[in-house]
Model the fold of this input.
Amino acid sequence: MGHKINPIGFRIGVIRDADSKWYADKKNLPRLLREDYDIRLIVKKRKGWDNAAIAKTEIERQANQVTVTLHTAKPGIIIGRGGKGIDDLKADLEKLTKKVVRINVQEIRHLETNAQLVAESIAQQIEKRIGHKRAMRQAVTRAMKLGVRGIRCACAGRLGGSEMARREQDRQGKIPLHTLRADIDYGFDEALTQYGHIGIKVWIYKGDILPGARRPVEAPAAPRQERRDDRRDRRDGGRDGGRDGGGRDGGRDGGRGFGGGGRDGGGRGFGG
Done:
């Protein structure tokens, strides 16, 4: 059996950029890599930001400056009253990096179409003892209503407290994992239950990104075919044609006939 590769890492350099945008020599690479990990850990585990809905953290480095961009669906929680949240985070990161830190906050308008936020939402519902099937179905329905091309959700573990672990999934639309131009978002989270960890994976297909395009290209909608009207027209035409010239009723009139054919006149006829 094959293994599923991470769709985001698989497309870096083709249609996506890395979340860490900097270059370092062999000597400084381990230190800066560990620094990126610590920055993301501080953002994720920050007190009071449990419901901040942060999808990802991008890091850019210049000579004496580090730029951190937070993608979140709830920017108000991060900014805080009077910008206090940003100021406190900036002070902590400057203490860690020993450089000037600049923080940008980018809002995610539709969290239902972000795979990481959808996975976290399903995990939170499972921890609140909401059924995993219901949580996945709601996530799939909401995403499809907002125009995504396809979505797949998978939950694995001791679902419902069963003795044996199993894997269940819900999907709608298509998820072309082997098409590199396909803009597929991927998210993962874990739900901590009294029976153990339950892993949640989400794939969302938003469209194709063609060379030179900055946003997904939506496929043209297929023209709707008025099949019922066509059938009705054909049916009406067939009936009338049959009545007038040899259809069901035409055969009935000619065979039962008024001019020589049924049971009464050589058959049923009245005149011959």
Observations:
- The longest strand covers residues 196-208.
- Residues 208 and 217 are 5 Å apart (CA to CA).
- The two ends are 80 Å apart (CA to CA).
- The helical segments are 7-10, 29-44, 75-79, 84-97, 115-127, 132-145, 227-245, 248-256.
